[in-house]
């Protein structure tokens, strides 16, 4: 099922490995019979995700199978007990443990079931262990870069895949062994939000099982998170400097919800790579450099985030976009725009992330446009990119000043496009064939006249 993360045998084996964390490597907590039943249920808990051929014709088949797969797993285990090597009593217990990994109320399972002569199985504990470990198997083996890059999953599923690929690990917190630590990479605010939601989901499952585990001497008091967020902090430092110059002390106060050593490391890295520098007014404060290389770096740090509009509307862009545009127009398009024409184009650029991205990151001149006036190519790039953004956000075209700027660019394109269109007509394959045949006829006639 391409819209879901791994529910294969690899996932089941991953869940099994998480028991090492929950039990903290103390396997004496479980009896041999309980270990057998738990591992059997673990290996089979998602077998209900495997559907039947006739199910494929059902509308919403994947969601239907996914939503009820814990019950389907129970049915398969009971129905195929002999094939799986279980007697009827084993199948009954294993099926209930497997089904308990989601939705089934844990309180509906017996706390203890008599087994054999003088033995017992803590059914509720085994169900709780499977439920919690299943939730904790969130590491990168739940997905793959291949799936993300090739298989066409929906947007919601893609977020789940991305979360798993960013998880570094799950373990007992070495500073507080009674807590489970989740370590992950977060590179922007959206990734952090998704990871926080994942932690909340794990916390919710922990609340369902905490008392059951504690009663059986498995003490886990909560979930702690550890984010490697240097890329995110870099974005936050740059975003703050777009508004005003700041000192290291200012950053520590402003970003007090981040680790101090991460903030210090980010500032040092930005200084070392010449992205920021001491302010000429207050040397103890930092400012972002205004050269084109730095401008591009800052844009690319923020371009795939919801903070990009904040960047586009900043004084940093307002103060530097004209010089950046002049440099690109001259170096790449061999064209200088001045006066009101320049102001109009800057209006569109400042309101279009797509245009700015094209100007900064796609600098190569398309050689197939060699016969077209380069000013027209530049205007086509600006107008096309701006219209793409307007289609997604019509509010970008509401101001009269912007509409007039767009009309100016459009008029320039129409005025200068005529000669190019006439040139393109000669590139028509059919017309070329006609010209070629006429040329051959003329050559043949000349040859005949020469022979005569």
Which descriptors would you attach to this protein?
three-stranded antiparallel beta sheet, 452 residues, three-stranded mixed beta sheet, flat, Hypothetical protein af1432, Arc Repressor Mutant, subunit A
Structure notes:
With 452 residues, this protein is mainly alpha-helical. Among the domains are: 9-228, Hypothetical protein af1432, CATH 1.10.3210; 231-289, Arc Repressor Mutant, subunit A (Orthogonal Bundle). It is 61% helix and 9% strand. The strands form 3 sheets. The chain has a 3-stranded mixed sheet with strand order 3-4-5. A 3-stranded antiparallel sheet has the order 6-8-7. The chain has a two-stranded antiparallel ribbon with strand order 1-2. Strand 3 (167-173) and strand 4 (176-185) form a beta hairpin. Helix 7 (123-136) runs antiparallel to helix 10 and helix 18 (353-361) packs across helix 19. The longest helix has 27 residues, at 189-215. The radius of gyration is 32 Å and the shape is flat. The relative contact order is 0.06.
User: Stretches where pLDDT falls below 50 for ≥5 residues?
Assistant: none
Q: What is the name of the CATH architecture of the domain at 9-228? A: Orthogonal Bundle
- Strand-residue fraction? 5-15%
Largest sheet: number of strands, sense, barrel closure: 3 strands, mixed
Give a quick precis of the structure:
With 452 residues, this protein is mainly α. The protein has 21 helices and eight strands.
């Amino acid at each position: 099922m391409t819209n879901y993360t791994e529910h294969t045998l690899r996932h089941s084996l991953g869940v099994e490995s998480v028991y090492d964390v929950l039990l903290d490597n103390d396997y004496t907590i479980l009896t041999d019979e309980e270990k057998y039943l738990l591992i059997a249920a673990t290996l089979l808990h998602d077998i209900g995700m495997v559907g039947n051929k006739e199910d494929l014709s059902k509308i919403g088949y994947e969601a239907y199978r996914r939503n009820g797969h814990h019950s389907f797993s129970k049915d398969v285990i009971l129905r195929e007990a002999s094939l799986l090597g279980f007697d009827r009593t084993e199948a009954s217990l294993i099926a209930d443990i497997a089904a308990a990994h989601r939705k089934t109320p844990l309180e509906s399972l017996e706390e203890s079931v008599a087994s054999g002569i003088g033995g017992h199985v803590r059914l509720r504990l085994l169900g709780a262990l499977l439920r919690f470990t299943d939730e904790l198997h969130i590491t990168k083996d739940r997905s793959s870069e291949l799936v993300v890059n090739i298989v066409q999953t929906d947007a919601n599923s893609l977020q789940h895949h991305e979360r798993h690929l960013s998880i570094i690990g799950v373990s007992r917190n070495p500073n507080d062994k009674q807590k489970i630590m989740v370590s992950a990479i977060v590179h922007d605010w959206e990734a952090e939000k998704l990871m926080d939601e994942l932690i909340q989901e794990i916390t919710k499952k922990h609340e369902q099982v905490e008392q059951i585990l504690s009663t059986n001497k498995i003490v886990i008091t909560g979930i702690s998170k550890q984010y490697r967020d240097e890329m995110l902090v870099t974005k936050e430092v740059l975003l703050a400097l777009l508004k005003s110059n700041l000192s290291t002390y200012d950053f520590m106060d402003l970003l007090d919800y981040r680790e101090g050593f991460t903030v210090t490391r980010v500032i040092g890295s930005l200084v070392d790579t010449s992205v920021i520098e001491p302010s000429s007014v207050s040397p103890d404060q930092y400012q972002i450099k205004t050269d084109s290389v730095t401008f591009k770096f800052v844009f690319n740090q923020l371009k795939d985030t919801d903070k990009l509009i904040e960047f586009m509307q900043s004084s940093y862009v307002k103060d530097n976009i004209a010089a950046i545009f002049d440099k690109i127009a001259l170096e790449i398009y061999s064209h200088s725009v001045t006066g009101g024409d320049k102001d109009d184009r800057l209006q569109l650029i400042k309101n279009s992330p797509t245009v700015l991205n094209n100007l900064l990151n796609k600098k190569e001149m398309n050689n197939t446009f060699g016969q077209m006036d380069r000013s027209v190519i530049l205007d086509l790039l600006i107008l096309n990119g701006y219209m793409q953004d307007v289609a997604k956000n019509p509010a970008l075209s509401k101001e009269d000043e912007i509409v007039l700027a767009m009309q100016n660019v459009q008029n320039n394109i129409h005025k200068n496009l005529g000669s190019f269109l006439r040139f393109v007509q000669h590139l028509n394959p059919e017309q070329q064939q006609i010209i070629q045949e006429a040329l051959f006829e003329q050559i043949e006639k000349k040859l005949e006249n020469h022979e005569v």
